[in-house]
Amino acid sequence: MTNSSSNLTLSVNGNMNNFNGPYFSNNTNAILIPSGSSAQRPSGGNVAGYLRYNTDTTVTTLEYYRASQSAYLPLYSPPTFTTVSPFTIIQDASSTQIITITGFNFDIVNGCIVYYFNNNFSTIYVSTSTNVTSSTSLTATIPSAMNAGTAYTNAPYAVQVQNNTSGMSYTQVGLINTFYWNPIDPSGMNLGNLYTSLTYSSSSNPKLTPVNAISPSGATLTYSFDPTGAYATGYAFVTGTGLTIQNVGGNGYITGTVKNGYVLVSTTVAFGIRAYDPSLNVYLTTRVFNATFVPLLLNLSVSGSGVTTNTITSAGSYVYTAITMTPTTHLVSPATQSYNLTVGLTAAGGSNYTADPSFSYVDFLVVGGGGGGGSGWEGGGGGAGGLISSGNNPYASYGYNIGNSGGGASSGVGPIFIPAQGSATTYINAAVVGGGGAGGYYSYDSSNAPPANGANSTISFAARTYIAYGGGYGSTEQNISSNPYSLNGANGGCGGAAGQGGMTIGLGTANQGYNGGAGVSDGSTGGHYIGGGGGGAGSVGGNAVNGAPSSSNVGQGGNGGVGLQNSINGTSVYYAGGGGGAPRATTSNGSPGTGGTGGGGSGALTANSSGGFTGGLGTDGLGGGGGGVGVSSSGPSYNGETGGYGGNGVIIIRYRTT
């Protein structure tokens, strides 16, 4: 150690250190300075320029004493950063875009300001929001002015991060590029309705407005649905529909056929489309688009007298519309009521729109008019109208399954498939509902009249025709010299009953209804003749039951055949029950048969001379057969006995609406 001219020189390990010269040390290693917490600072006699290392976790930096402020102030390092993500932003002033900056020494106490400079540093933009998440990471919004109008021509942008406490900053140039999406207007990001079964093309209608962008590199971009991150759900949905993106001349067209049955209700989906720059070998920023996928649902309307509509929600949460057609007043066969059906789609479209198959089927129930009940000495019950149901079919899993047809059919005939187009089609007289047959009229004079079959009910549209035949009338015997006749039970949808043992039953139509029941003649004193019951859609008409050979125990008319249950309109209802038969009675002890469940009229009889008796009426809208009527004598005082008329038929159609 030497001391010359007030200079102090120390020799340490051969290194000369001059403490009064221009250098504190000429060593290339380091020096150790005092360190400690803020509480360990000198308690007094602080001098300007004191230097120490503060070990407090909130500071952990060199600090010096500033006499003018009587305080220790930190010595800061400037911020630095290495990456900015994403390095491209969308030219879209309507969207909020955020970048993440990764680096070191970000101010976690008082935060940072992020500045952006255009490519010639003539314009400065300031981030509207900056969030320092740690000393190594922060996020910052892109000012809308940077991506408005033609601002993309100012790219690439420089980025500067400034720490608020120290004012120190760091800048890198050429970090952020901008590319231009077309259209900029956010309404262009909503593609509107995309319809099932419709094929979208890049060259012919219907086609969607293509997506395109201007790359910062000037390269021709290609486009695809983004399968990554937050876009994965939308990607799975939109690609599952069968759509893809076709790249043609720098444009991206959404093309393909939206699968039928992929959506059962209108569904709005957000999905990402990304642009790929081959010159940079990177995917540029993804843009979010929206589209609503719409199933093309069948839409039916019916015009005519006596139309009712109701909505049904099934156990499977399917929603249906059921339309019932039956005349509001009783029609006497051969009268019928016609209806026009208009078939279209719930969505507008041209000829290339077709309904989704799961919504293109129409369930139906068709019941013919019931046959009239017989009259005379004994009256057979009228047969119910024939019953046809669409029943089981390949689309039962979609809820098309309403039950069997009548007459013991193992299943229905299957629904009607309607290849509905966008433009509505009207089917004239597509549905015809048959009226009920008249009951036989017993009169001692020549005005007596036979009963009649019910009229047929028909549904005929979309190249399919189904006929439910009218019920057969019940047998009638008129042993009157002025107008004698004897009628067997008539064939029909369901057969009419026989009036006595020597008469034949009417036959039902296969897969629509059953035969009528047999009558009996007991041969006892007084002539006990007993009519059978008319056939129903669900069972054969009941046979007449013979009584003891005495006038006081005549026996019982046959009960009408039971109809068939069907729930097409949302409620389980019996349709097409046969009419009950009636005996000839010399006393009031004869018992008429009851009408079959499903609108069949019960039989009736008279054992006095009052006249005016009528068999039970078949129920309109169910196609029930009329009840027979019996009398005890053919004298002139027994006038005006009439078999019950058959009920009007019905047609019900049902189709899915969700």
How would you briefly describe this protein structure?
With 658 residues, this protein is mostly beta strands. 1% of the residues lie in helices and 35% in strands. The radius of gyration is 47 Å and the shape is rod-shaped.
What can you tell me about this protein's structure?
This protein has 658 residues and is mainly beta. Among the domains are: 73 residues, no CATH class; 102 residues, Sandwich (Immunoglobulin-like), CATH 2.60.40.10; 110 residues, Immunoglobulin-like (Sandwich). 1% of the residues lie in helices and 35% in strands. The chain contains one helix and 48 strands. Strands 9, 11, 12, 15, 16 and 19 form a six-stranded mixed beta sheet that branches. Strands 27, 28, 30, 31, 32 and 48 form a six-stranded antiparallel beta sheet that branches. Strands 17, 20, 23, 24 and 25 form a five-stranded mixed beta sheet that branches. Strand 41 and strand 42 form a beta hairpin. The longest helix is centred in the middle third of the chain and has 9 residues. The protein starts with a strand and ends with a strand.
